[in-house]
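Protocol step 4 of 5: obtain the predicted structure for the target chain.
Materials: sequence only (see below). No template structures provided, no constraints applied. The aim of this step is simply to have a reference model before the mutagenesis design in step 5. Sequence pasted as it appears in the construct record:
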Amino acid sequence: MDGDADVDKVVGPVLVLMRLLGLWPQAGRDRTGCLTGAVRRTLAFVPMALMVVGSALKLCLDTPEQFEDITLCAFITNVVAAILLKAVMLVVQGGRLRQLSRLLAEAWAEFPEAAPGGSTGTRGRYEALADRMRLCFQVGGLAPLLCWLSAPLVPRLTAAPGQRRRRQRQLPIPAWMPTDVYASPAYELVYALQALGCAGACAATICADSFFVRLLLLIAAELKVLNENISSIRSTDPVRGDRGYTCRCRETAVILPSACEDCRNTSIPPSEKTADELHRQLVNIIRHHQIIIRMVSLLQEAMDVSIFVLLFANMANLCSSLFTAAILLQEGGSMSKILKGLSPLPVVLYQTSLFCIFGHIVTDQSEELVNAAAGCQWAGCDVRFKRSLLIFMTAALRPLDITVGKVCPLSREMLLQVLNGTYALMNMFYYYHHKTK
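Step 4 output (structure tokens):
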């Protein structure tokens, strides 16, 4: 049970929402727990799938006349389909993600920081940053959700009492149905189903994005801790002499009967630490590095499909959202449509940015390993230590990165490629729009 509690601690505050949606299994689950999780996933996934199918059928069987309506419908289909894929892959890759969480929990227990600071230490700072990113995802997800669900009601609520019945009913998500969905009670039923699907999509994307970003930051924290531990390869204990302990925290060396508290934080040359102690410390660092390599491999396998699709979907989503809003502004479209088109834009933009930037942080921290190893006090160590350090530096020469889709490393360069692709698509859409006008 302690191991499961440590794994849950790695997942963080988003664990409650993930279990509510059935995306993360309960510890020690039985048949009843499996059935409960399956029911929760069904209630979350089916409305999202119906939204994708309804929007796709709207494009194929009842294509809107206005080009901006076509792009808006395609945008909705693309966004919800990408979210659904992310949620499904989160369940499919649950075993790898649980194994990764267990490795992180073991690393926390087995490899302490060189300068432990609790919540103010390296791991504590990165974990606090992950919690702030989760809050950003929550706020950024709820704002578009409220906008999409309330947009169809605003024209009817703001209209004069005599004109409310003349106003045509609208749905949050354009969808094709074999029957008249604007007549009661079909309208209310479809509206409620779409509201459930939108809420499920919002919750699912908060869970997946927050969890993946948290794992990226926790792995970056492990690399930072590893860099600090390598740099601290030196004796930090008082030296035991013939008559007692040698105190080095004063201007002149003083012999004390017991260890001085101040000396424990005083660095002294590595020659005063035995060769065996230094080698054991280096072996511990190498083991930590090997575990981190395994963590990166597991996270890459878990993010491979979903984040690769997400990057390209977001490129199309950014283009579609900006293009729709621009056309509506030029042609005097309704403000509700403009707001609906622009509302997901901040979420899509910072979602893409955070994955690329935090993935780049992992690579940056791994590139510092060689410099940290070269900067430690190895000159006065024995041959065995130097050989082991050389092997470690050779292994650390290859930086660690998260590559999705086999060809797209999460980095700042990848973010620029996504933005360039968005600009190219917008130019193509503008050309096609003016050509067909």
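Step 4 remarks: The chain has two domains: 2-234+269-436, 235-268. The mean pLDDT is 82.
Proceed to step 5.
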